[in-house]
Amino acid sequence: MSSADYQEKRDFVKTPEPQWRTSNDGWHRFVVQKHRARSLHYDFRLEMGGVLRSWAVPKGPPLEPGIRRLAVQVEDHPIDYIDFAGEIPHGEYGAGSVEIWDRGEFNLEKESADILEFSLRGKRLSGSYALIRTDNKKWLFIRRKEV
Ligand code: MN
Questions:
Q1: Ligand 1 centroid to 111 CA: how many Å?
Q2: Ligand 1: distance of its center to the CA of 41 in Å?
Q3: Cβ-contact 82, 52 below 8 angstroms
Q4: DSSP single-letter state for residue 92
Q5: How far apart are the first and last CA of the chain?
Q6: pLDDT tens-digit series, residues 60-89
Q7: How many angstroms is it from 35 CA to the middle of ligand 1?
Q8: Which residue of 9, 85, 105, 135 is surrounded by the most CB atoms within 10 Å?
Q9: How close is the Cα of 70 to the center of ligand 1, in Å?
């Protein structure tokens, strides 16, 4: 019997019992770190399933609808990385400075292997966004039109 069976039997407007929640329900944290490594890029990270799913965005996240930005998925990072800012020493992987460019919360609205749709509530980034996988590690980062 699945969590869906539990949910279907109950009307949570009427019962005080807890709802089944997956780790991706509701608002979770995101961060954008400006990373002056060998080449400047922006690391976009979403807190999902106990990790930070991560993409390197060379030109930075799109600020306006209609703009598409390449986002290259990189390895998941530990949750604590969400607060990291500082200097990665010369000779180390990703050597260079890291600063928090934006942070806030996101609400995941759609998730499949190749599409993530979410709303962001940050200081610089706010509104509806999507990441669409085009090829293995390559994704398109787009700002969706508000409905
Ligand atoms: Mn980076």
A1: 24
A2: 6
A3: yes
A4: S
A5: 37
A6: 999 999 899 999 999 999 999 999 999 999
A7: 5
A8: 105
A9: 14
